[in-house]
User: Which sequence fits this backbone?
């Protein structure tokens, strides 16, 4: 009887220890469930996340005995505090930009950060101690039945196939089959960027890949020079700001004639010109940005990787440069430009967060402007009007109703939702109007020769003309997908220094323009010249020749022509 009782106690104690170990291993998961802004909205999202985390956590049990299994998981547990702190501070799991930032932080800065988490560090050390003591005390045997361990891997495969199928079926039906495959694959992989510790591995791998690409690009371009020269006197203070929008449509800006009042502040702004017939050269950000920031064209996209970019042309001319962004922190092309700027800042919160508003960039702009540089060029890359549109603005900008609710999911996408989708999109444009006005206001206060230019990377489908098409990146884009806003504001000092420029801009406001013209326009508007410049490509030049037929580079590399 005593032997049986001892065996029961021993089994109970062993199960208790294993229970404690699993509870500790689930701490990153529990932290995400309560702190990650990306999975808090829907109960189904939480259940899906919990199941995926559980599969990932249990998978090694199919081939490891208990002691080795918990030691293996214990290695990752040592990094769990980083994940939990990141969730606490940013509401998102660890990402590759955070890994990059962490690896670039010196010892002194690291100690300053750690000193603000004394209590958390003590708790962490206690948890580690408890965990490894329990691992030491448990016997080394397989956990679960043989059939349970055999079933883990096929169940994991079935789960992922189901996840992919569900994502594929919920993607916009207007997209091509290949386009839906690409988007669905990306979204499935993106789910693993939320799962600890897989996200650490994926993020670190992405960091190494990006770092390698950036170094290779820098090495390839280190001797490249535009040969630029500023014609403005050195003692004249100059400030030029380029705001890059996201998924903005020109025909939803009331300044361009849209019936809803979506841009009331811009319409009241003096010295401002809005161009109504501008088409982007691409309909997806990863292709649009290189074409926007370089002399590359849809016919010669490789030029973007053979030459330096617009910010670097300004830097070559002696300007202090800054890159302030709310997105694209995973794009090596953008990372290279940003890291070569005198100042750069990325918001590390993903676009899936419902509170990642572009106004977070304004204090960073204030910081750069406080430097009071004599010659300055600043790029502000916003999240703008990216889906989900209701996540792009605070509640006080919800003017057009009914709008998409906070828990609106991709599964609800359909043209029967066009009214609320359009309302939410227009609310995001209203917020863009506010952001642009705040940027102009800050630049205006500098009382110098200054210009603010705004253009979106591409536009957006909104179930137009009864179609099933929503969002962007289709292989055969419509005009709606590339018809972008382009706005230029000039300071009083600028108009006094260059009185003819405003009139020339105004004369071209209805001309057919391509986002390809931005590079040439920005340098010309800044009174910067270079040996092989092309005045006919700058809308600040009387020689500008607009072409009604414009080239668009699609995601699959095909060129189409639109009016």
Assistant:
């Amino acid at each position: 009887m005593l032997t049986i009782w001892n065996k029961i106690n021993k089994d109970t104690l062993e199960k208790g220890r294993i229970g404690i170990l699993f509870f500790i291993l689930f701490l990153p998961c529990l932290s995400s469930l309560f702190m990650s802004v990306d999975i808090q909205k829907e109960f189904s999202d939480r259940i899906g996340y919990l199941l995926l985390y559980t599969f990932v956590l249990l998978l090694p049990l199919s081939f490891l005995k208990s002691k080795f299994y918990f030691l293996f998981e214990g290695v990752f547990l040592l990094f769990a505090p980083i994940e939990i702190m990141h969730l606490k501070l940013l509401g998102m799991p660890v990402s590759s930009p955070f890994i990059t930032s962490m690896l670039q932080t010196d010892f002194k800065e690291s100690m300053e950060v750690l000193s603000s988490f004394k209590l958390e560090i003590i708790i962490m050390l206690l948890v580690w101690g408890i965990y490894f003591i329990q691992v030491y005390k448990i016997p080394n045997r397989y956990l679960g039945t043989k059939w349970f361990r055999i079933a883990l891997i096929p169940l994991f495969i079935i789960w992922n196939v189901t996840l992919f199928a569900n994502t594929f079926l919920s993607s916009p039906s207007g997209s091509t089959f290949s386009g839906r495959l690409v988007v669905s694959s990306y979204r499935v992989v993106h789910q693993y960027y939320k799962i600890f510790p897989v996200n650490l591995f994926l993020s670190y791998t992405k960091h190494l890949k990006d770092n390698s690409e950036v170094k290779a690009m820098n090495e390839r371009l280190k001797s490249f020079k535009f040969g630029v020269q500023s014609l403005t006197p050195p003692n004249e203070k100059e400030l030029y700001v380029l705001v890059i929008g996201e998924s903005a449509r020109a025909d939803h800006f009331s300044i361009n004639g849209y019936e809803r009042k979506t841009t009331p502040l811009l319409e009241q702004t003096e010295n401002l010109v809005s161009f109504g017939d501008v088409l982007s050269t691409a309909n997806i950000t990863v292709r649009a940005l290189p074409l926007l920031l370089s002399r590359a064209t849809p016919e010669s996209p490789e030029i973007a990787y053979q030459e330096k970019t617009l910010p670097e042309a300004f830097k070559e001319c002696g300007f202090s440069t800054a890159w302030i962004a709310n997105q694209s922190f995973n794009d090596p092309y953008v990372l290279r430009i940003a890291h070569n700027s005198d100042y750069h800042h990325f918001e590390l919160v993903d676009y899936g967060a419902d509170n990642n508003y572009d106004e977070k960039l304004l204090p960073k702009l204030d910081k750069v402007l406080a430097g009071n540089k004599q010659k300055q060029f600043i790029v502000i890359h916003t999240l703008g009007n990216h889906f989900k549109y209701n996540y792009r603005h605070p509640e006080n900008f919800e003017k057009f109703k009914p709008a998409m609710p906070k828990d609106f999911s991709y599964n609800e996408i359909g043209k029967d939702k066009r009214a609320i989708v359009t309302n939410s999109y227009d609310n995001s444009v209203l917020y863009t109007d506010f952001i642009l006005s705040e940027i102009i206001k800050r630049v205006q206060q500098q009382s110098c020769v200054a210009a603010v230019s705004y253009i979106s990377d591409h536009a957006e489908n909104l179930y137009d003309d009864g179609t099933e098409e929503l969002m962007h990146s289709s292989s055969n884009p419509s005009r709606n997908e590339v018809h972008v806003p382009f706005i230029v504001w000039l300071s009083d000092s600028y108009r006094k220094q260059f009185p003819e420029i405003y009139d020339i801009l105004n004369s071209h406001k209805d001309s057919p323009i391509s986002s390809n013209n931005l590079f040439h326009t920005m340098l010309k508007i800044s009174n910067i010249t270079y040996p092989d410049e092309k005045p006919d490509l700058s809308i600040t030049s009387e020689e500008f020749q607009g072409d009604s037929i414009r080239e668009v580079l699609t995601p699959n590399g095909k060129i189409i022509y639109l009016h």
The two ends are 90 Å apart (CA to CA). The mean pLDDT is 88. The chain is about 45% helix and 10% strand. The first strand starts at residue 229 and ends at 230.
